[in-house]
Design brief:
18 strands, binds 2-OXO-4-methylpentanoic acid, about 350 residues, alpha+beta, nine-stranded mixed sheet
Length: about 350
């Protein structure tokens, strides 16, 4: 863990809140940032200059290494408003842990709890009025870190900026999605960086996703890099299937270990379903859709929450999944997660971090 002694967070309040400009009845994902942001600098081996300031531009050097060599990672977390007005962040400790795993893989410094978690709580206390309360909405939290050393040699940067910005959001996907099984391009390979949430994983997805969009699909179903035989992820989210009576999520080091995915698998287990993290082949999926064994398929992620999949395209043929209203598990888990995260039921797991 990087040195974090005596971390003090200074606060500069915004003069005029931009809150009145937000149309909370029409929230688009990631378009309107909240009043404040947290910014911290890593230099000379330590974190310093940790501050909460009005949201605004950052100044960068054109030779800053993140722009050239891609040392850049991020997280996605959500905060919800309870009926009594309290604000709760969903499992941010798990995102903090994953963020630091991403950091280690990219030779970046870990961010201490005092900055990531305590700083986030302080930021949200200030911007709590930005947390929307309508069903399906949340405050999306985006912690990120990038390399700032102004030098063109390829080596781990000596300096970094960590920041947290937030924005009120509605649904990322407003309806069920269709996926194209990708059999040409790859997202990640063994020994690579698929498990980490680094910016490059998203950059490489843009072109194949554009091709899939042009063919009428919303997103890509990524497959393994060697044979395109095993299923990995759905666009920018994890995948979960119900096959027979099992709730199954693809397994492997190329897959991002999503907090929503983990939460859903934990709930499935608690509710007595058989759960499996294992390789799932495209053929098993297609055969299962045709035989009726695959009764549910959905994307799981912070932004996506639970997004039903209605159609899967493979080698030019479309396979249609059962009607959404018949999907017992995914509807139940989405409903339960909403009840829990909006604070309408007790939280027996300690997943809600109330600020
Ligand atoms: C998230 O679910 O938070 C993500 O990272 C997806 C995002 C790239 C929209």
């Amino acid at each position: 863990m990087s040195s974090a002694e005596h971390i003090k967070i200074t606060v500069e309040n915004i003069e005029d809140s931009r809150l009145p400009q937000v149309d909370f009845s029409n929230l688009k994902f990631g378009q309107f940032m909240s009043d404040h942001m947290l910014v911290a600098n890593f230099d000379n081996g330590k974190w310093e200059n940790v501050k909460i300031v009005p949201y605004g531009d950052l100044s960068i050097s054109p030779s800053m290494s993140a722009l050239h060599y891609g040392q850049a990672i991020f997280e996605g977390i959500k905060a919800y408003k309870f009926p009594d007005g309290r604000v709760s962040i969903f499992r941010p400790d798990k995102n903090w842990e994953r963020f630091n795993r991403s950091a280690s893989r990219l030779c970046m410094p870990e961010v201490p709890q005092e900055i990531f978690l305590d700083g986030l709580k302080q930021l949200l206390s200030l911007d709590k009025d930005w947390v929307p309360n309508q069903e399906g909405t949340a405050l999306y939290i985006r912690p990120f870190m990038f390399a700032t050393e102004a030098a063109l040699g390829v080596h781990p940067s000596k300096s970094y900026t960590f920041a947290i910005i937030t924005c009120p959001v509605g649904a990322y996907y407003s309806k069920p999605i269709s996926l194209k099984v990708e059999t040409n391009y790859v997202r990640a390979s063994e020994g690579g960086v698929g498990f980490s949430k680094n910016a490059g994983n998203y950059a490489l997805s843009l072109y194949p996703t554009q091709l899939a969009n042009n063919q009428g699909y919303d997103q890509i179903m990524w497959t393994d890099a060697k044979e395109h035989r095993f299923i990995e992820e759905a666009g920018t989210a994890n995948l979960i299937f119900r096959i027979g009576d099992s709730i199954i999520t693809p397994h492997g080091e190329t897959i991002l270990h999503g907090v929503t995915r983990r939460t859903i698998m934990e709930l499935a287990e608690k509710w007595g379903f058989k759960t499996e993290q294992r390789l799932v082949s495209v053929q098993e999926l297609i055969d299962g859709i045709e035989s009726g064994e695959v009764s549910e398929a959905f994307a799981a992620g912070t932004a996506a929450t639970v997004t039903h999949i209605d159609r899967i395209g493979f080698n030019g043929t479309d396979y249609t999944l059962p009607p959404i209203e018949n999907r017992e598990f995914s509807n139940k888990v989405l409903n339960y997660l909403n009840e829990l995260r909006y604070g309408r039921i007790d939280d027996p797991f300690g997943w809600n971090f109330i600020i």
